[in-house]
Specification:
- By secondary structure, the chain is an alpha/beta fold.
- The protein has eight helices and nine strands.
- Strands 1, 2, 3, 4, 5, 6, 7, 8 and 9 form a nine-stranded mixed β-sheet that branches.
- A hairpin with an 8-residue loop joins β6 and β7.
- The longest helix is centred in the last third of the chain and has 25 residues.
- The chain is globular.
- The protein starts with a helix and ends in a 17-residue tail after the last helix.
Length: about 250
Protein backbone atom coordinates (compact mmCIF):
# COMPACT_ATOMS: atom_id res chain seq x y z
CA UNK A 1 0.00 0.00 0.00
CA UNK A 2 2.74 2.48 0.93
CA UNK A 3 4.78 1.61 -2.16
CA UNK A 4 1.81 2.12 -4.44
CA UNK A 5 0.97 5.44 -2.82
CA UNK A 6 4.57 6.66 -3.16
CA UNK A 7 4.76 5.55 -6.79
CA UNK A 8 1.68 7.62 -7.62
CA UNK A 9 2.85 10.78 -5.88
CA UNK A 10 6.67 10.81 -6.02
CA UNK A 11 9.13 10.71 -8.89
CA UNK A 12 11.41 8.22 -7.12
CA UNK A 13 12.55 6.92 -3.74
CA UNK A 14 16.35 6.84 -3.49
CA UNK A 15 19.12 6.10 -1.02
CA UNK A 16 22.55 7.73 -1.35
CA UNK A 17 25.29 5.36 -2.46
CA UNK A 18 27.52 6.68 0.33
CA UNK A 19 24.66 6.30 2.82
CA UNK A 20 23.63 2.67 2.50
CA UNK A 21 23.16 1.16 5.95
CA UNK A 22 25.97 -1.04 7.30
CA UNK A 23 25.53 -4.81 7.45
CA UNK A 24 22.81 -5.66 9.92
CA UNK A 25 23.52 -7.47 13.17
CA UNK A 26 20.17 -9.19 13.71
CA UNK A 27 20.83 -10.25 17.28
CA UNK A 28 21.38 -6.67 18.45
CA UNK A 29 18.80 -3.96 19.10
CA UNK A 30 18.68 -1.21 16.48
CA UNK A 31 17.51 2.39 16.80
CA UNK A 32 17.16 4.38 13.57
CA UNK A 33 16.75 8.09 14.29
CA UNK A 34 15.99 10.67 11.61
CA UNK A 35 15.27 14.32 11.08
CA UNK A 36 11.60 15.28 10.62
CA UNK A 37 11.04 17.48 7.54
CA UNK A 38 7.68 16.24 6.28
CA UNK A 39 4.44 14.31 6.63
CA UNK A 40 6.08 11.86 4.20
CA UNK A 41 8.49 10.63 6.90
CA UNK A 42 6.18 7.85 8.02
CA UNK A 43 5.92 6.57 4.45
CA UNK A 44 9.71 6.85 4.15
CA UNK A 45 10.17 4.71 7.25
CA UNK A 46 7.89 2.01 5.84
CA UNK A 47 9.57 1.93 2.43
CA UNK A 48 13.21 2.06 3.52
CA UNK A 49 12.77 -0.39 6.40
CA UNK A 50 11.19 -2.97 4.09
CA UNK A 51 13.83 -2.57 1.40
CA UNK A 52 16.97 -2.16 3.50
CA UNK A 53 16.25 -4.10 6.70
CA UNK A 54 14.46 -7.29 5.63
CA UNK A 55 13.73 -9.71 8.42
CA UNK A 56 13.37 -7.06 11.11
CA UNK A 57 10.08 -5.79 12.49
CA UNK A 58 9.78 -2.04 12.83
CA UNK A 59 8.10 -0.03 15.59
CA UNK A 60 7.51 3.73 15.35
CA UNK A 61 6.36 6.16 18.04
CA UNK A 62 3.78 8.72 16.86
CA UNK A 63 2.02 11.58 18.60
CA UNK A 64 -1.07 10.02 20.16
CA UNK A 65 -3.59 12.56 18.86
CA UNK A 66 -2.26 12.24 15.30
CA UNK A 67 -2.36 8.45 15.50
CA UNK A 68 -6.10 8.61 16.18
CA UNK A 69 -6.53 9.75 12.57
CA UNK A 70 -4.57 6.76 11.25
CA UNK A 71 -5.80 3.94 13.45
CA UNK A 72 -4.83 1.21 10.98
CA UNK A 73 -1.17 2.03 11.61
CA UNK A 74 -1.29 0.45 15.07
CA UNK A 75 -1.44 -2.89 13.25
CA UNK A 76 1.92 -2.32 11.57
CA UNK A 77 4.02 -1.30 14.55
CA UNK A 78 3.08 2.33 15.22
CA UNK A 79 2.36 3.17 18.86
CA UNK A 80 1.00 6.36 20.38
CA UNK A 81 3.02 8.74 22.53
CA UNK A 82 1.43 11.40 24.70
CA UNK A 83 3.69 14.41 24.19
CA UNK A 84 4.57 17.12 26.71
CA UNK A 85 3.61 15.00 29.71
CA UNK A 86 5.53 12.98 32.28
CA UNK A 87 3.08 10.10 31.86
CA UNK A 88 3.70 10.03 28.13
CA UNK A 89 7.47 10.06 28.61
CA UNK A 90 7.32 7.12 31.02
CA UNK A 91 5.03 5.17 28.69
CA UNK A 92 7.33 5.79 25.72
CA UNK A 93 10.40 4.56 27.58
CA UNK A 94 8.55 1.48 28.80
CA UNK A 95 7.41 0.58 25.29
CA UNK A 96 10.79 1.39 23.71
CA UNK A 97 12.56 -0.82 26.25
CA UNK A 98 10.21 -3.71 25.43
CA UNK A 99 10.78 -3.22 21.68
CA UNK A 100 14.56 -3.19 22.03
CA UNK A 101 14.45 -6.34 24.15
CA UNK A 102 12.66 -8.23 21.35
CA UNK A 103 14.96 -10.16 18.96
CA UNK A 104 14.55 -8.94 15.40
CA UNK A 105 12.73 -5.75 16.36
CA UNK A 106 13.92 -2.22 15.66
CA UNK A 107 12.80 1.22 16.72
CA UNK A 108 12.55 4.07 14.19
CA UNK A 109 11.87 7.62 15.34
CA UNK A 110 12.07 11.25 14.30
CA UNK A 111 14.78 12.67 16.53
CA UNK A 112 13.48 16.25 16.93
CA UNK A 113 10.02 15.20 18.08
CA UNK A 114 8.54 17.95 15.87
CA UNK A 115 8.53 19.00 12.22
CA UNK A 116 11.59 21.04 11.24
CA UNK A 117 13.15 22.34 8.05
CA UNK A 118 16.20 20.47 6.72
CA UNK A 119 18.22 23.70 7.00
CA UNK A 120 17.51 24.31 10.67
CA UNK A 121 20.51 23.97 12.99
CA UNK A 122 21.13 22.70 15.55
CA UNK A 123 18.87 19.68 15.19
CA UNK A 124 17.18 19.10 18.56
CA UNK A 125 17.17 15.62 20.08
CA UNK A 126 14.02 14.49 21.86
CA UNK A 127 14.71 13.59 25.53
CA UNK A 128 13.26 10.12 25.02
CA UNK A 129 15.80 9.34 22.30
CA UNK A 130 18.64 10.55 24.50
CA UNK A 131 17.52 8.22 27.30
CA UNK A 132 17.38 5.09 25.14
CA UNK A 133 21.10 4.28 25.42
CA UNK A 134 20.64 3.91 29.18
CA UNK A 135 17.89 1.35 28.63
CA UNK A 136 19.62 -0.57 25.83
CA UNK A 137 23.40 0.01 25.88
CA UNK A 138 23.83 -3.03 23.60
CA UNK A 139 21.87 -1.26 20.84
CA UNK A 140 23.29 0.48 17.78
CA UNK A 141 22.04 3.97 16.93
CA UNK A 142 21.87 4.68 13.20
CA UNK A 143 21.40 8.29 12.01
CA UNK A 144 19.16 8.71 8.96
CA UNK A 145 18.97 11.93 6.93
CA UNK A 146 15.82 12.49 4.85
CA UNK A 147 15.00 15.16 2.27
CA UNK A 148 12.27 15.71 -0.36
CA UNK A 149 13.58 18.07 -3.08
CA UNK A 150 11.90 18.91 -6.35
CA UNK A 151 14.24 18.42 -9.30
CA UNK A 152 13.12 18.67 -12.91
CA UNK A 153 9.78 16.86 -12.69
CA UNK A 154 6.33 17.64 -11.28
CA UNK A 155 6.73 15.17 -8.41
CA UNK A 156 9.28 15.37 -5.62
CA UNK A 157 12.16 13.01 -4.91
CA UNK A 158 12.41 11.08 -1.64
CA UNK A 159 16.09 10.93 -0.66
CA UNK A 160 17.85 9.43 2.33
CA UNK A 161 21.31 8.54 3.57
CA UNK A 162 22.52 6.73 6.69
CA UNK A 163 25.54 7.71 8.72
CA UNK A 164 27.89 5.37 10.61
CA UNK A 165 26.20 3.59 13.54
CA UNK A 166 26.97 4.73 17.08
CA UNK A 167 27.44 2.15 19.79
CA UNK A 168 24.89 2.40 22.58
CA UNK A 169 27.49 1.57 25.22
CA UNK A 170 29.58 4.56 24.15
CA UNK A 171 26.54 6.80 24.34
CA UNK A 172 25.49 5.41 27.71
CA UNK A 173 28.92 6.28 29.14
CA UNK A 174 28.36 9.97 28.33
CA UNK A 175 26.38 12.55 30.23
CA UNK A 176 22.95 13.16 28.74
CA UNK A 177 24.03 16.55 27.42
CA UNK A 178 27.10 15.08 25.71
CA UNK A 179 25.02 12.17 24.40
CA UNK A 180 22.51 14.54 22.87
CA UNK A 181 25.32 16.49 21.20
CA UNK A 182 26.89 13.30 19.81
CA UNK A 183 23.58 12.09 18.35
CA UNK A 184 22.87 15.51 16.85
CA UNK A 185 26.32 15.90 15.28
CA UNK A 186 26.08 12.48 13.61
CA UNK A 187 22.64 13.27 12.19
CA UNK A 188 23.62 16.77 11.04
CA UNK A 189 26.67 15.39 9.22
CA UNK A 190 24.43 13.06 7.22
CA UNK A 191 21.92 15.84 6.53
CA UNK A 192 24.67 18.14 5.25
CA UNK A 193 26.06 15.46 2.95
CA UNK A 194 22.62 14.54 1.64
CA UNK A 195 21.96 18.23 0.96
CA UNK A 196 25.01 18.33 -1.31
CA UNK A 197 23.62 15.45 -3.35
CA UNK A 198 20.15 17.00 -3.46
CA UNK A 199 21.63 20.26 -4.77
CA UNK A 200 23.62 18.36 -7.42
CA UNK A 201 20.38 16.83 -8.83
CA UNK A 202 22.36 13.81 -9.97
CA UNK A 203 20.39 10.54 -9.74
CA UNK A 204 23.57 8.51 -10.32
CA UNK A 205 24.63 9.42 -6.77
CA UNK A 206 21.73 7.31 -5.49
CA UNK A 207 20.47 3.75 -5.57
CA UNK A 208 16.80 3.64 -6.61
CA UNK A 209 14.46 1.97 -4.14
CA UNK A 210 11.23 2.74 -6.00
CA UNK A 211 10.39 4.38 -9.32
CA UNK A 212 7.45 6.75 -9.49
CA UNK A 213 5.77 8.84 -12.15
CA UNK A 214 7.41 11.31 -14.51
CA UNK A 215 5.91 13.98 -16.72
CA UNK A 216 3.01 16.29 -16.01
CA UNK A 217 0.23 13.72 -16.43
CA UNK A 218 -3.30 14.54 -17.49
CA UNK A 219 -4.83 15.17 -20.89
CA UNK A 220 -1.84 17.03 -22.32
CA UNK A 221 0.53 14.16 -21.63
CA UNK A 222 -1.86 11.65 -23.18
CA UNK A 223 -2.06 13.88 -26.25
CA UNK A 224 1.75 14.06 -26.49
CA UNK A 225 1.93 10.28 -26.21
CA UNK A 226 -0.65 9.78 -28.96
CA UNK A 227 1.18 12.26 -31.17
CA UNK A 228 4.48 10.42 -30.70
CA UNK A 229 2.84 7.09 -31.55
CA UNK A 230 1.26 8.59 -34.68
CA UNK A 231 4.68 9.84 -35.80
CA UNK A 232 6.35 6.53 -35.01
CA UNK A 233 8.63 8.11 -32.43
CA UNK A 234 9.46 6.96 -28.89
CA UNK A 235 7.65 8.88 -26.15
CA UNK A 236 9.55 10.34 -23.20
CA UNK A 237 7.21 11.92 -20.60
CA UNK A 238 9.97 13.77 -18.76
CA UNK A 239 10.03 17.55 -18.65
CA UNK A 240 13.84 17.49 -19.00
CA UNK A 241 15.01 14.33 -20.83
CA UNK A 242 18.64 15.39 -20.27
CA UNK A 243 18.30 15.21 -16.47
CA UNK A 244 19.55 11.70 -15.74
CA UNK A 245 17.86 8.35 -16.07
CA UNK A 246 14.21 7.78 -16.83
CA UNK A 247 12.06 6.13 -14.21
Amino acid sequence: MFAGFAARHLRAVRVATWGLPPPDQPGRPLVVYANHPSWWDGVAFMLYSTELFPGRRMFIPMEAEALKRYGFMTRIGVFGVEQQSARGAVAFLRTAKAVLAEPGAMLWMNAPGRFMDVRERPVPMAPGLVRLAELAPEARFLPMAIEYPFWSERAAEMLCGYGPPIEGAALAAMSREARSDALARALEAGMDRLAEDAIARDPTRFRPVLRGREGMGGIYERWRHALAVARGKPFDPRHDPSAGESA
